[in-house]
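Morning!

This is the sequence you dropped in the shared folder:
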Amino acid sequence: MSRGEAFALLLWLLVKPSLCQPEECKDQCNRQMFSFSVTDIPRVLKPSTTEVYFLNSQIETIPKKAFFENPQLEKIEFIESNVASIEPGALEGLVNLKAVEITGNPLATIPAGVFKDLENLQTIVLKNNKLRNLEKGLFQGLKNVIEIRLHGNEIDQIEEGTFDELENLERLHLAKNNISSVSTDLFSKLAKLQTLRLYENQLTSVPEDIFHNLTNLKEVALSGNKLTELSPKLFPHKDKLVKLNLENNLLTTLPPQFFVDFPQLKTLTLQKNNLRTLPPVLFGTLANLSSLSLSENNLSTLPKGLFSPLEKIKKLDLSKNHFVTMSAEYFEGLGGLTELKLENNKIHSLDADVFHELPSLTTLRLAHNDLRTLPGDTFQPLQLKWAAPRITYEATRLEPIGHKITVENMSRGEAFALLLWLLVKPSLCQPEEYKDWFNRYIFSSSVTDIPRVLKPSTTEVYFLNSQIETIPKKAFFENPQLEKIEFIESNVASIEPGALEGLVNLKAVEITGNPLATIPAGVFKDLENLQTIVLKNNKLRNLEKGLFQGLKNVIEIRLHGNEIDQIEEGTFDELENLERLHLAKNNISSVSTDLFSKLAKLQTLRLYENQLTSVPEDIFHNLTNLKEVALSGNKLTELSPKLFPHKDKLVKLNLENNLLTTLPPQFFVDFPQLKTLTLQKNNLRTLPPVLFGTLPKLSSLSLSENNLSTLPKGLFSPLEKIKKLDLSKNHFVTMSAEYFEGLGGLTELKLENNKIHSLDADVFHELPSLTTLRLAHNDLRTLPGDTFQPLQQKWAAPRITYEATRLEPIGHKITVENMSRGEAFALLLWLLVKPSLCQPEECKDQCNRQMFSSSVTDIPRVLKPSTTEVYFLNSQIETIPKKAFFENPQLEKIEFIESNVASIEPGALEGLVNLKAVEITGNPLATIPAGVFKDLENLQTIGLKNNKLRNLEKGLFQGLKNVIEIQLHGNEIDQIEEGTFDELENLERLHLAKNNISSVSTDLFSKLAKLQTLRLYENQLTSVPEDIFLGPVLQQP
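The structure's back. C-alpha cells below.
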C-alpha cells in the first residue's frame, strides 16, 4: 500500500469540518468524509453536503443510482477505496456534479455512458487505477469538461472518437503506459487543448498531422518514449507553445529549422537521446529560453554557430557526449552564457581561443575528461573577467570541479507529514461534533525520542516522518490510556521487548514504512483489547511463533510490502477471531497445510505477489468463512481439485498472473456468491469441458493473455449472467459458434490480439444481446458477407469497424501519467484544512498559515500580515522570481510541494529576514543559483529533496551559520564543488542518500564540526577516504 494511504485515516480523524467562524470556514460544513470502515455508499447524505470523499474505504462497487438521492453533490472522490467496478447509471441524477475522482483503485473497466447527462462536470480524474481501455461514448455530451487525468492505469486501447465531444477540454494527461501508436485523428476535435502529456510510453513515431487542429497547445510532453525521428511539420502552431519535452527518446537527429518560430518557448528538453548530428540551422530566436541541455547524447561535433540565435541562453549543457575537442565556432553568439558544462566527455585538448566568445561565462565544468596538457593561456580571457575563477585543474589532468552526492528517496506522501502537524491541530469548535479532536497528538520530523508523558486526555498518538530509530522498553508505560499508536515513515529500525508494556487499552497499532527488519516475539503480550495490527511496508524478513500470542480480539493484521520469506509454524494459531490477514508483496515461497488452520473466522486472505509455486490441497480446509482469496502474481503451475472445500461464501478469487497451464474439471462449480474471478495472464493452454457451474453473481470473465487456441463446446453455457467476456491476447486462429453457446446475455466480447484469420458466417449467431465486439489486431483478411448480419439487425449502432482486406483496430492504446498517491490529497488538504479562529487558545497558530494549490500559477505579491507560513501544494508555479516574497518579511516558513517549480531566480528569497525553514520538494528543479539563501541569517532548515538538481555550487550555503539540517535526497546531483558545505558551522544533519555518487573527497565535510547525521546510503561508492570523518564527530540523532 502506498505511503499516501498512511494518511487516509489520519485525514478522516483530523479534518472533520467545523462551524467555528462562518465567514472563514463555512464551506467546511459542506463536506463529508468516509474512510476504511465504510463498505457501502450511504444512501442519503446531509442536505448541506456538496462534497463527499471516500478515503481508503472498502467499497468494491459503485452501484447504479449510488447518489440518486443526493442531487446537490458537486464533488465526489474515491481515493484508495478498493473500487473494482462501476455499474451503468452509477452517477445518475447528479445534475450539479462538477468534479469526480476515482484514484488508486483496482478498477479495470468503466462503462460508456456513466457520465451521461452530467452537463456541469468540469474535471474527471481516473488515475492510478487498472483501466485497460476507453470506449467511444465514455465522455459523450461532456461539453464543459476542461481537464481529464487518466495517468497511471493499464490502458492499451482507446477507441477512435473517444475524445471527440470534449470541445472545451484544455488538459489531457495520458502519460506512463504502454502506448505504442496514436492515430492522426485521436485528438483532432480538441480545439481548445492546451496541455497534452504522453510521456514514458512505447511510442516509436508520431503522425505528422496529429497536432494540426490543436491551435492552442502550450505544453506537449513526449519524453520517455522510443521516438527515432520527428516530422519537420509536427508543430504547425508554434506561437503559444511554452513547454516541449523530448528527452529520453531514441532520436538520432532533428529536422532543419525544427525549433524556429517558437516565441513563447521556455522549456525544451533534448537530453538522453541518441543524437549524433545536428543540422546547421536548428534554432531560431527563442526569446524565453534560458537554458538548454543536450547532455547524454552521442554528439562528437557541432555545426558552426549552431547556438548563435539563442541570445538569451544562460546555461548550456553538453556533458556526457563523445566530444574529443572543442572549437570556438561552437559558441559563436553566446555572449550572455554564464554556465557551460562539458564534463564526462572524451576531451583531450582545447584550443587557446576556445572560450574567447564567452565574455559572461562564470562557471565552466570540465571534470571527467582526458585533458592532460593545456595551452598556458586557455583560461586567461576568462580569468581576466572573473573575480573568482570557477575552474580547478592540475598540470597533468583537470580535477573534477564537483563531486556526485547521494540523496534519500522520500515518498511524496511524506511531504505532507509536517504540514498535517501544522495545519490540523485540534480545535474546540463544536464540542458535540469534535470532542475526539482533543484525544490526539501528532509528532513529526523534529522528534527524536518518544515523550515519556502525554496529556491525560490523549488516546491516540501519531509519529509521522519522525527521527525515532528505536521504540524502547516501556515506551508508553506512563500513558495507559492510549488506544491507538502509529509510527509512519519514522525511521524505526528496532523495537525492544516490552516496548508496548502497560497499554491495557490499546486497540490499534501501526508501524508502516520503516527500516524495521525484526519484531520480537511477545511485544504484543497482554494487549487483550488489541484489534488491529498494521506492520506494512517495512523490512520484516520473518515472523516468529509467539509474536501474536494471546491476541484473542485481533480482527485484522496487515503485513504486506515487507520482505518476509519465513513464517514459523503456529505463528497465527492464537488469533481465533482474526477476519482479515494481508501477506501480499513479500517473498513467501511456500506455505504449510496448517499455517492458517486455526483461523476459523478468517474472511480475507491476501497472498498475492509472492513466490509461491504451489498451495497445499488442505490449506483452506478449516476456513469455512472465507470471502476473499488473493493468490495472483505468484508462480503457481497447478491447483488441487479440492482446494476450496467451502465455496458458499467466497465472493472474490484472484488467480491472475501465475503460471497455470490448465484447471481441474468442475473447479468453479458451486460458488453461489462469487462476484470476481480473475484468470488472465497465466499460461492456460487447455480447459476441461466442464469448468464452470452456475455463477449467478459473476458478470464478467477474463481469460486474456493466456495460450488458448481452442475451447470446449459450451464451456461458458452455465454462466447465464455473464455480460463481458475477454479472450484477447491468446492464440486463437478461428472462432466457433460452439464456444458461445448459452451466452444469450453477453453484451461485450473481446477477441483482439489473437491470430484469427477466418470467421464462420454463423459464429456470432448465439449472441443476441452483443453490442460490443473487438476484433482488432488479428489476421482477418476476408469475411463471409453475412458474418455480422445477425448482429447488425439487432444493433441500433453497430460497434464494429472493418475493411474488406483487414479489420481495423477499434481502439488505440493510450498512456497515463504516474502521479503519486500523495498528490491525491493536495487539493483535498486545501479544501479541508483552511485555518479557523475557533478557539484562540487552542488553534490561534492556524491563522498564521496560507495554502495555495493546483489553481495557482503565480506567487501572490502580498499575503495577510498575520501569515508566517505559506504552502504551495501541487501548484502550477514554474518559476520563483526575484523578490518573490519581498513584501512579506514576516514569513518564517515557505514550502513548494509538487509545484512544477523549474527555476529559481537569483534574489528570489531576498528580504526574508525572519525565514527559519524553506522546502522545495518534488519539483522539476534542475539548478539552484548560488547566493539564493544570502542574508537569511535565521534559516535553520533547508529541504531540497526529490527534485532534479544535478550539482551544488560553492557559495550556495554561504553565511548560513544557523542552519542545522539540509535535505538533498532524491535529486540527480552529480557534482558538489569543494567547499560547498564549509560555512555550515552548526549543521547537524546532512541527507545525501540514494544517488550515483562514486567518490567523495577527504575535505568535503571537514568543516562540519557539529555534524551528527550523514546519510550516503545506496550509492556507487567503491571507497571512502581514510580521513573523511576526521573533522565532524558523528553521533546518532
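Headline: The first helix runs from residue 8 to 14.

More detail when I'm at my desk.
O.
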